[in-house]
Amino acid sequence: MYTESHGDESALTAEKPLVFSKVTDPEFKKIFDYNDDYLHFLDASKTERLCCAEAVRQAEKAGFRPLSEFRSLAPGDKVYVNERNKAVIFYRIGTEAVTDGMNIVGAHIDSPRLDLKPSPLYESDDLALFKTHYYGGIKKYQWVALPLALYGTVVLKDGTKISLSIGDRESEPVFCVSDLLIHLAGKQMAKKAAEVIEGEELNLLVGSIPVKDEDVKEAVKKNILKKLQKEYGFTEADFASAEFEAVPAGKARSVGFDESLVGAYAQDDRVCAYAALRGILDLDETPARTACVILADKEEIGSVGSTGMNSRMFENDTAEICALLGETDTNLAVRRTLRNSACLSADVTAGYDPTFASAFDPLNSAFIGKGAAICKYGGARGKSGSNDAHPEFLAKLRGIFDDAGVFWQTCDMGKVDQGGGGTIAYMLAAYGMDVVDCGTAVLSMHSPFEISSKADTYMTWKAYNTFLIKY
Ligand code: MN
Ligand code: MN
User: Fold this and answer.
1) Which of 17, 218, 235, 298 gives a 20 to 30 Å CA spacing to 368?
2) 387 C-alpha to center of ligand 1: Å?
């Protein structure tokens, strides 16, 4: 399929070829076709809830059904578990015993954003605003003076669920956080970047028209509440059982004259989530080992909560799978299954950025356009908090990827002691399985507009698809 083999390429990432320089014409086209679908997925998935729903929609189209519909399971079955509409796990049952282990790709579908506080609405000097509490690690100054869309789920006391989505359609208004004009920003500009915009300054502008009644206090706020009641059917008290996320408004875009890059909000980690989803949906035969894809929530705040990877969610669902496959001692079966599994922790990594080259070790960086990035370890301050994969596992992966024509590169995220980052790798490794981080390199990670290479997003899909069927 390839004009040259790359199994014998240099181990040095800096010397590895650009994917676009080596792929055949048909695969060059496949790269762009895949990315057209990826851009649509991003647009349909602006929050973890929407991402979960879109993943389920695509999976059902491909024949997957909820676990609750099965009385027993057999090889070839396609199953999913929707975890509170915020995380989802897919299983494609293999021909071998599940206790011999699964091939797992685990990504996350939550992304940094501005969440509304539980009591968000206030009026100040005749403007109505929402208080926010940011979610995940952000450079707060990047989230001012740009159009934001608002997504909400309000649950009324009687259980009625109201979904709101305002700002991503052309006809809709957007919201924004204001910044201080440069003319008056002398003091602000002298501050450290972390303090230029403070957390309590991330206030969302939501209105300025008062109700027409001279005697009413906070007439602008009152007008907003009237509108919320009339158009969406909830009151100020209902914010107590609601969640609202403000995210960058607008669609995912191609970037560059050659349209070779993707620019979009939340590619961390929906780029790997989409590659993993398509990886399992695109399996055209029943795998030997059961294939499993995890799309988890809450990674950006430490994988906490009942839909994060630190919960028993995955273990519980896998126990149900074991039971439906006829295992009688499900406690032992689930332990064996997980212990014998192999996993790609599917998350983004830092792409080498020539503009900020001093943060990187060029010998050990993931380069934009050189394929899926394998990070043996992450962590910070001497690999602390990292999984650090075993060479035996990495060797097997190299063989499988090279045989299948997957372009891949190794990386260490930034220079030693420059910073660091974590993924869900160590949580899955806790079950005793082999795990390594393998994902897509991005520029401007955690910003409102993250950049990836179309060649890399495609090779990430190819890596996951190959791993799920061949490992
Ligand atoms: Mn991530
Ligand atoms: Mn992240």
Assistant:
1) 298
2) 15
Asked whether the whole model's pTM tops 0.85, one would answer: yes
Q: By three-state DSSP, how is residue 168 classified?
A: coil
**Residue (of 461, 435, 263, 442) closest to 349 by Cα position:** 442
CATH code for the domain defined by 113-248: 2.30.250.10
Task: Compute the distance from residue 168 Cα to the ligand 2 centre, in Å.
Answer: 23
348 CA to centre of ligand 1 in angstroms: 5
CA of 45 to the centre of ligand 1 (A): 15
Q: How far is the CA of 224 from the centre of ligand 2 (A)?
A: 34
91 CA → ligand 1 middle, Å = 22
CB neighbour list of residue 33: distance below 8 Å, 6 or more residues apart: none
Q: Which residues pair with 237 in a beta bridge?
A: none
> Which CATH number applies to 2-111+265-470?
3.40.630.10
Q: How far is the CA of 269 from the centre of ligand 1 (A)?
A: 5
Taking only the tens place, the pLDDT of each residue in 273-302 is 999 999 999 999 999 999 999 999 999 999
pLDDT in tens, 354-405: 999 999 999 999 999 999 999 999 888 899 988 899 999 999 999 999 999 9
Q: Provide Rg for the chain, Cα atoms.
A: 23
CA atoms within 13 A on the CB side of 265: 27
In the chain, what are the domain boundaries?
2-111+265-470, 113-248
